[in-house]
Amino acid sequence: MPEGSTGRVVVRCAILDALGLPSLVLLASMTGFGSLARESSLSLELALLSTAGVWGLPGQLAFAELYAAGSEAVAVVMAVSLANARFLPMAVSFMPLLQVGLVRRAWLMALVQLLSVNTWAAGLRVSPLLSGRERRRYFAVFGGVCMTAALIGTATGYLAAGAMPRPVTFGLVFLNPVFFALIFADMRGHATAIALAMGAVLGPLLHLVSPDWGVLATGLIAGTGAFWLARVLPARRQRP
Amino acid sequence: MESSAWPLLLSAIAATYVWRALGVLLSARIDPQGDLFQWVTCVSYAMLAGLIARMTVMPLGVLAETPLVDRLVAMAIAFAVYFGWRRKVLPGVAAGVAALILFAMVRENGLLGG
Fold first, then answer.
1. Range among A12-16, A93-97, B28-32 rated most confident
2. Which of B30, B93, B105, B112 best tests the A interface by mutation, with the highest count of A CBs <10 A?
3. B103 within domain boundaries
4. Which among A182, A191, A221 has CB closest to B38?
5. Which chain A residue has the Cα nearest residue B94?
6. Chain B closest CA to A187's CA: distance in Å?
7. DSSP letters of B6-73?
8. Which residues of A fall within a CB distance of 8 Å from B6?
9. Which residues in chain B touch residue A168, judged by CB atoms under 8 angstroms apart?
10. Contact residues, chain A, for B77 at CB < 8 Å
11. Interface contact flag, A115 B20, Cβ < 8 Å
């Protein structure tokens, strides 16, 4: 996109950018979520609302899984929220870019609902080229296309899980853990790697101890442990 | 179950939106690279990794109908394709999913027993 683009050019670029890999990944991953939602005995309406409302696959996954497990309401809400806690640092780093030239903050409070890994990355990429007003235009259109793709994927997965032969439904639901396992394999960073490894070991164990609180406890214990280890380990290594 | 799902989901959506809203409201006053955020990131990644591992090793729903060995081998195939194909996520996911479907179909037809 040329620097200083406005109006229709920005809209067209936003649509074309979003229709590439972001929509494809969302379509695929949300198809998996739609199937999982159905197999977790959620209605289609709830599955769609969860995509548009939570708008972050980790939280959606936590919701479907803990709902299916019949976990306590407080545990479900806390786990869903914590799964998408990265929205806070993402919003902190990105939303000021959208605020430039904006008088009413209410618009930001609406636009921030569109924030996801995809829209955040795309927004950060194009922001240096655009004025505040055009950034908001790009972000709204890009986010709108992404959300449409996600909703289509959710509905497709939901309906497919009921219509397809059983083995295909297995595959569609299996898409969820496989997708995240590979996303995790791509992650860099000392603390993150330790957190993922410790979480993967503790998760199944603590589920056996308490199906209600196992997920949250895994996050708190393994996450805190990893945070601490990541700061202690390099410090030790430096000593003679 | 369905009647309790609506308020539960709406609460979960509100609790997720809190992070977004705080991000807008606090943006000038906090450092996204700070210790607190790093800890929160660790907690949420550990939680998710735990959930994913549990879904693979001891799934609750429909996946419980598949044998553990099928899920583990399918997951290994997904990783193999991912690392063998310049770390591309989608081909890896497709391979893992296809493998599990194939295993289930073969088992249905009695070729592998089980």
1. A12-16
2. B93
3. yes
4. A191
5. A175
6. 11
7. HHHHHHHHHHHHHHHHHHHHHTTT--TTSHHHHHHHHHHHHHHHHHHHHHHHS-SSGGGGS-HHHHHH
8. 46
9. 101
10. none
11. yes
ipTM for the complex? 0.89
Inter-chain touch A173–B49, beta carbons under 8 Å? no
Q: Give pLDDT, residue B77.
A: 98
DSSP letter at A5 equals -
CA distance B95 to chain A (A): 10
Q: Which residue, chain included where needed, has tokens 């410090």?
A: A235
Is B33 within a domain? no
Residue B38: what pLDDT?
86
Apex A201 CA angle, A171 and B58, nearest 5: 40
Residue B88 belongs to a domain: yes
Q: Which two tokens stand for residue B50?
A: 């735990």
Spatial CB neighbours of A108, under 8 Å, sequence gap ≥ 6:
A95, A98, A99, A102, B24
What is the structure's pLDDT at A148? 97
Confidence tier at A231 by pLDDT (50, 70, 90): confident
Contact A40, A71 (CB under 8 A): no
Q: What is the pLDDT of residue B35?
A: 84
Phi then psi dihedrals of residue B87, to 5 deg = 55, 45
**How many folded domains does chain B comprise?**
1
Chain B residue numbers with beta carbons less than 8 Å from the beta carbon of A184 are: 45, 48-49, 52
The two structure tokens encoding residue A61: 């996954």
Residues of A within 8 A of B96 (CB-CB) are: 174, 178
Amino acid at B15: A
Structure tokens at B26: 């606090």
Per this entry, what is the length of chain B? 114
pLDDT tens figures, B57-92: 999 888 999 999 999 999 999 999 999 999 999 999
- Distances in Å between the Cα of A72 and the Cα atoms of A160, A210, A214, B10, B80 are 29, 11, 11, 15, 38
Q: Give the span between the Cα atoms of A58 and B44, in whole angstroms.
A: 9
Q: Is residue B108 domain-resident?
A: yes
